[in-house]
Design a protein that fits this description.
The longest helix has 16 residues. 27% of the residues lie in helices and 26% in strands. With 329 residues, the chain is α/β, with parallel strands linked by helices.
């Protein structure tokens, strides 16, 4: 059966969203992260025009979610079990009415958490979608799709020996063609510094329209990812999509250097989420992010662009795109 993964801007039947549920993982950031996810859920169900299916990972998490959002219109709380909230990576990729699942090994063996390897099957069952199991390791945040079979990815992640040892670009392209209908794979190099995902593309470069890719531009002195941003932009400037069209590259301001315990945290406005009627942009620390929001308003004139705090969520290593997965209409 021939199919391609729809672009994120295509209509959605639902938006799956993970709710922070484990105090031992989030510690002092648990309640702030829960509040940020609740705000995201409300934005998605309101101006975003989404049916939000909020997946909780424990009984305690479910109780808090119901207290915060139980009466909110457009939000359905779905009890489940997961190690943590990163549904983009542990959940399935929906296409052609099916839920396409992949093996998950905790981002190269870094974080082995109970139940994460069952999330894709849980979501497929709750969605009533046939599950298609693929026997190789892939996280949803490692690939981005334009709806015609062009896939963006990074060699740092997809060819990493901690995922599928022995993979080359040719082997990976064959696997993506068979599993996700990829007609052409666009290879970028390194992702963000200190990103425990080993360079997921959804922090670096995103399709925002046909033949159009958004990439950050360094902000402030000492942006730790300036070289990676510029390298990605240079590569894409010489590439074409699966239909042979040249790519337009749009540069969006980076949040710049944000301190973490071991150097800069991989904060990125590229981790925005495209909803049915809105684009939700993560904002970090005291950085208002107004420049990124203003650029994205020009990119998405038919959607409301909303900036929301993602300070506590970022302490877990990701942001809005990482904790969601769209289910196409």
């Amino acid at each position: 059966m021939s199919f391609t993964v729809p672009a994120e801007w295509a209509p959605h039947k639902a938006m799956w969203l993970g709710f922070p549920s484990h105090a031992e993982l989030w510690e002092d950031d648990l309640e702030p992260a829960q509040a940020e996810v609740a705000a995201l859920a409300r934005a998605l169900a309101g101006p975003g025009g989404e049916r939000v299916r909020l997946m909780t990972g424990s009984d305690a998490g479910e109780a808090v979610a119901r207290a915060l959002l139980g009466d909110a219109a457009g939000i359905e709380i779905v009890p489940g079990r997961f190690g943590d909230i990163w549904l983009r990576d542990t959940g399935p990729i929906f296409a052609d009415g099916r839920a396409h699942a992949f093996r998950f090994n905790g981002w190269g063996g870094k974080y082995a958490l109970e139940h994460d390897d069952t999330v894709a099957a849980q979501i497929a069952t709750a969605a009533g979608a046939p599950l298609v199991a693929n026997d190789f390791i892939l996280e949803g945040g490692a690939v981005d799709h334009d709806g015609i079979g062009t896939v963006l990815t990074t060699g740092q992640c997809l060819l990493n020996r901690n995922r599928n040892p022995g993979w080359t670009e040719a082997v990976a392209e064959t696997a993506l063609a068979a599993s996700l209908g990829a007609r052409k794979v666009l290879w970028l190099g390194e992702g963000l510094r200190n990103d425990h995902t080993d360079g997921h593309v959804d922090n670096l470069a995103r399709f925002v329209a046909p033949s159009t890719v958004a990439i950050p531009v360094a902000w402030g002195r000492g942006d730790p990812n300036a070289e990676a941003f510029d390298d990605a932009a240079r590569r894409l400037a010489g590439m074409t999509d699966a239909d042979g069209n040249g790519l337009k590259v749009i540069r969006i301001p980076s949040p710049g250097w944000i301190d973490g315990d071991d150097g800069p945290i991989p904060a990125s406005h590229m981790n925005f989420l495209i909803a049915n009627r809105a684009v939700i942009v993560p904002i970090y620390e005291d950085r208002p992010g107004e420049f990124a929001v203003e650029v994205l308003k020009q990119v998405f004139p038919d959607r409301t662009v909303i900036g929301l705090p993602s300070v506590a969520i970022l302490t877990g290593g990701g942001s809005f795109h990482c904790i969601t997965q769209q289910e196409p209409a």
